[in-house]
């Protein structure tokens, strides 16, 4: 139980990564699998993750990320991209996967499928994009915590030009949009912010028991 709080106290938004230290494939795959298992509304997972270690791509992304050194120095950059628009295919694909995974007839899922379609398909495109972008943040948070469990550092990054990311990574033709970015790797000993006390609002301010 104490590890839960210990790991969350240990992690911080790493400002300077040690560029010589790389995450092992084993640990990276564990983090990605933990993220794949993340909750999402209806289980639809309307997003895609780009796991970037290529130095040239990272160099291209840094100028459109406010020049932040984390982009080039971290072991990997994870771009969380949300589906910008969708139709029945997103829901039908999920239903097919459910049918196969749980070994149940697809006919038995029709009612649930119709319910999802009634709630989602008539939404304006902009509303759909906002909703799918919110879904990325659920997975995003899970990745941060999974990394902390392995004592791997992260830095959440919202300071970037989404349209430039989309162009560099060719996301628009994939019906995707760069929603949020996570730099993961190992902190540099020179990063003074690792020694700062964690600042959070008190429980009395945050929680109301009813």
TrEMBL record:
Superkingdom of the organism of origin: Bacteria
InterPro entries registered for this protein in UniProt: NfsB-like, Nitroreductase, Nitroreductase-like
Keywords: Flavoprotein, FMN, NADP, Oxidoreductase
The keyword Flavoprotein appears for this protein: yes
Molecular-function GO terms, alphabetical: oxidoreductase activity
Family: Belongs to the nitroreductase family.
Name of the protein described by the UniProt record: Nitroreductase
